[in-house]
Queue: 4 jobs
Job 1
Amino acid sequence: MDASTVQANYENTQPLGTVQLSSDSFTTVVRMASAEVSNENKTHTFWPIMDLDTNTTYQIKVTTGVQDVAGNAMEREHYSYFTTQ
């Protein structure tokens, strides 16, 4: 994965960036504090600026702006979900 194409929103809660985390269907996103790339650009770890709400379902969206090292973009957005306890 081309690490330069993996971006989160560090400034505000607007749904910007190629990796987004939201609990309200992406009306707003969780603001991120920092990120780390490891494992030869295969692992991207993001830390939110504050604790996530308990008992809340969050959606992760990876947009087609993410590219591999050859410059190939994802064909479609990818979504994943998790619920905090």
Job 2
Amino acid sequence: MLHNTLSISDYLDNISNEQESLVALLNKVCKKIAPVWPLENFVAVNPYLGLTDKKFGNVAQELADAGGIQMTLPAAFYLQKIQEGKISHKDLANALKKNNESTSVNEFINAINKDLDKNTVKSPVATVADIATQVTQKDWNRFVTSRISVWASSYFDNGQAIWTAADKNEGLFASWKAEAEVDHTPELTGLKGFRKLAKALPHNPIEAIQTALDKLEVPEEGLPLYLHRILLRVGGWSAYVARLDWDSELYGDKGGKLIELLAVLTCWEAC
């Protein structure tokens, strides 16, 4: 059943003054996701396309926080190369100077060795699903990712499947919302009242994101990292949708499908 005939472009064309800052933030976060093309017409894309305005170290820190992504080999690898002489003290001195570091080479090596002794691996910023997994010892993160993937594979199916469940005549968020309202799986798994909560969500994906964020009470300064984190939770789908936006924008459209996917992700967190 068709719940809503408005597209994301319609919503973006009619945002309120109160929504302007949120939409600007959503667009900024979505630009961090590089698009990916299907195999039949694959195009190689810099995976850091949306982060090229930042320094390598800052990007490495952001991706580690947002998705547990490591842009370098472990520090132990480089220490071994130093011991083998393949990385010289002169190389290190030049690198430290280039980055305006006042630390000496020996102090730098000692600091790395101390970090290795601690044997700590920093985890990405926690989502609600992450915390629920820790508290209940039930893998909610995997469950949420699985449910999103099941819906997305149906919605974006291009004829491979014999039967598809998602209504492609609706927008991305509207399709997910309509399916979530009748999906018994979350409640059978333990998410009581999921269908009722999904039904109560606004049809407008931007309003739905605001509703979810208000409920989650994510600090304003942490929103960019949090939103980036949940996009990377389903990185493959995020990159696929980013490509759809890329194509739309080439023809003068506003895109916005990745914002709709963010609405799905934030609402899952809030429900």
Job 3
Amino acid sequence: REKVTGRAIYASDVVVPGMVHARVVRSDVAHARLVDVDVRAALEQPGVLAVLTGVDVAWLPCPRYGHIF
């Protein structure tokens, strides 16, 4: 009944003090090869705490099915 009436609580409804959000941005060009990523302009935007690129997370283990980004 809660789901039908819209009263059910889902993970996206949870707000935690100090919570931040992440956004994945991908190339809009199929099969493109990135030569360099300049994140300086993004870091200057209000509210931006960090910008991570593939180089920053290359050390993370890659599961068999591939990266999630």
Job 4
Amino acid sequence: MAAPVASAAGRAADNSIVSQASVRSLMQRMTLEEKVGQLFMTYAYGSSAGTVDGRNQAEFGVDTPAQVVQKYHLGGAIYFAWSDSVNNPTQIARLSNGLQQAALSSGARIPLLISTDQEEGVVTRIGPPATTLPGSMALGATRSTASAEKAATITGHELRAMGVNMDNAPDADVNVNPANPVIGVRS
């Protein structure tokens, strides 16, 4: 239940890890709505927690990403370029901070899982100045577990500094059907 929270300077700090007794106490005080909300992760539109975007109103019935987190007691948020949430590391860190503050001040008071698809290669949600690294097929072609581990370590450290505490990568996409090129070099 501990999640890194990014600072405005782009560094993450660990929240303290809670005991089993604390978890039981937390679960007892949460409403059913808050417990159900913790099962969900979604996107919201905006480059900051307080950005008013009409798409949030249309899809979630509220104006800002922070309000989406609070209204639905979300367990997580996911960042995509099309939702205007991944412009640069400082902006991402500030967004992460704002969403974590919204989660911690809501009824559930549980830090968010904040994720993105930073697979590297062709699926890179956060571009430069984040480190540009090869994708899975290129890393696999090296047959070097050390290279793959180094790439993953770099990616993890950079995401953590932005308050992203979950990367939806690597994944198990396998390119086995030449008639279906959707996976391509992501495999």
